[in-house]
């Protein structure tokens, strides 16, 4: 039964989330402070975190930055701010979704289910790893090696590189790569694919400075040629 950590300082909001999530079969744990949540997440395993942005000790944005230093657990932000820049910043620092208050608890529960379905281990995989030129994809541990060295990828970077390597030479649009990340187009995140690609290239160059496997196709998107 998936465990959901709710970090929300308003008791009434937390209660509606707990009710909606438990009605869908989830186990919930509620905390009101980000600091307490970060400490708990270091010692216990959760399947997803619902994180309020406006917390009394530290902001949800800062809490997510700290969380990403030691965990890739999926995060949904809750916030009263609905500006596009806030949504983009939230997703850029590592969140998986962004819900603006007031919201429907049933919609949040549906978003939780959708995210958990996307990140669930793919049990039908027969091979633990697959070679793509100098890359080796471990689809069980969600790791990619380059020249037998582990690339320290975020979850979004892993999904992007896995998608590009799955069909070498194919040009993927930003919208198609967003779909691979499970991010909806309407959140205003499309241009941030470029930031993730930049991060991927930097990590690849740390291992092989002259290697340029990810190609840019202006006005179209990106492709990957593993041997380059």
Automatic annotation (TrEMBL):
PANTHER family referenced in this protein's UniProt entry, alphabetically: REGULATOR OF RPOS (PTHR48111), TRANSCRIPTIONAL REGULATORY PROTEIN CREB (PTHR48111:SF6)
Name by which UniProt lists this protein: Two-component system response regulator CreB
Keyword DNA-binding: yes
CDD domains: trans_reg_C
One Pfam family this sequence matches: Trans_reg_C
Domain Response regulatory, chain residue ranges per copy: 3-116
InterPro entries according to UniProt: CheY-like_superfamily, OmpR/PhoB-type_DNA-bd, Sig_transdc_resp-reg_C-effctor, Sig_transdc_resp-reg_receiver, WalR-like, WH-like_DNA-bd_sf
DNA-binding residue intervals: 126-226
Alphabetically ordered keywords of this record: DNA-binding, Phosphoprotein
Matches recorded under Gene3D superfamilies: 3.40.50.2300, 6.10.250.690, Winged helix-like DNA-binding domain superfamily/Winged helix DNA-binding domain (1.10.10.10)
């Amino acid at each position: 039964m998936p465990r959901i950590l709710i970090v929300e300082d308003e008791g009434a909001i937390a209660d509606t989330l707990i009710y909606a999530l438990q009605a869908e079969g989830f186990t919930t744990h509620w905390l009101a402070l980000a600091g307490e949540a970060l400490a708990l997440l270091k010692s216990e395993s959760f399947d997803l975190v619902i994180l309020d942005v406006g917390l009394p000790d530290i902001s949800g944005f800062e809490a997510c930055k700290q969380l990403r230093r030691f965990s890739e657990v999926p995060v949904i932000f809750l916030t009263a701010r609905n500006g596009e820049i806030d949504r983009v910043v939230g997703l850029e620092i590592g969140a998986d979704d962004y819900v603006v208050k007031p919201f429907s608890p049933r919609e949040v529960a549906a978003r939780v289910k959708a995210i958990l379905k996307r990140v669930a281990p793919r049990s039908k995989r027969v091979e633990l790893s697959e070679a793509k030129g100098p890359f080796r994809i471990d689809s069980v541990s969600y790791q990619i090696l380059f020249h037998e060295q582990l690339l320290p990828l975020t979850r979004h970077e892993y999904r992007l590189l896995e998608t590009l390597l799955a069909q070498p030479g194919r040009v993927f649009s930003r919208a198609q790569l967003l779909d691979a990340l499970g991010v909806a187009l309407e959140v205003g995140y499309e241009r941030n694919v470029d930031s993730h690609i930049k991060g991927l290239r930097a990590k690849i160059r740390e291992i092989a400075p002259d290697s340029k496997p990810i190609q840019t196709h202006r006005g179209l998107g990106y492709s990957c040629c593993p041997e380059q």
